[in-house]
Amino acid sequence: MSHPNFPQPPHNGPAAPPIPPAPSTYGGRPNFQGQFPAGPQGEYQPGPHGNAFYSGGPGKSFITTWILSLLLGTFGADRFYLGKTGSGVAKLLTAGGLGIWALVDLIMTLTGNTRDKEGRPLEGYPENKKKAWIITGILWLVSIITAILLTLVSLAVAGAALEKRTIPGAPDVPSASQAAPAPSTGSAPPSGSAAGANSFVATVSEGNTVKVSVLDSIYTTEIPRMTYLQPKNGGFLAVKVSWETLTGSSFASPSNFTVFDADGKEGELVYLDDGMGALPTDEVGAGDRRQGVIAFDVKKGPVQVVLNDDFGDKAAAFTLTPQ
Known about the structure:
323 residues; three-stranded antiparallel sheet; elongated
């Protein structure tokens, strides 16, 4: 049914063009509901992750930052290069945070987490990271091996110095010279024979002979550096002796000597503290010699000093009157 107010076009004529819909208005302004026609696109297109544009040119070099961090990180050179002057000065003044800060910065650089002052990533990281890790690992391994070798060499040098240290030849007791004592001819057994005014030769075991010489002696009521030790018999006798192996080998020790006072009472052997020049307890080969002090808690006066052999039997004896 046709509308009575509009004329009807002839059925056999051309169709009239469609009339475009009038744009709707909102607040007096046209409101286009359709799409704008596609126009020319600009050269910059944001990527799928919203890549930002960094001003000021490309970022700093990864290779340069890595080398500076590896070799001069303790002085903050890597941070100065990245433009981080404030933290670079702090790193320099703290020696790389005692090495911890420098190590952390190096690891951050190797893992690609370091940025320059503008927040830009380092250029050349993806293609050079593997090479940087390998070189850094090799240098760390060489440093560890070198440190171990230096420690071993230091220990060896210290051990050699201790072995070659000079054994004190003089006792840490008051020094007093006296007439050289001679071995008592009546008390020495057949195995002991005179070898000089203050020396004698004794056999300490089969085929092993020693020459013992008395170099000095002193009687004192107190031993310096051992003032805590109180004498039970009135004082202390200190005798400096020389022990030389003539044939075979022998074992020198203060315990090889025994002393008796004029009443026949045995004195008590005193073991001197380290560094006081005691006769060392040591095996002595043929031609070798040891010197040191033997000390006894004994009554003052003439004493008989007995040298015992390896079996504890008397090998020789001499009479000594200390001053």
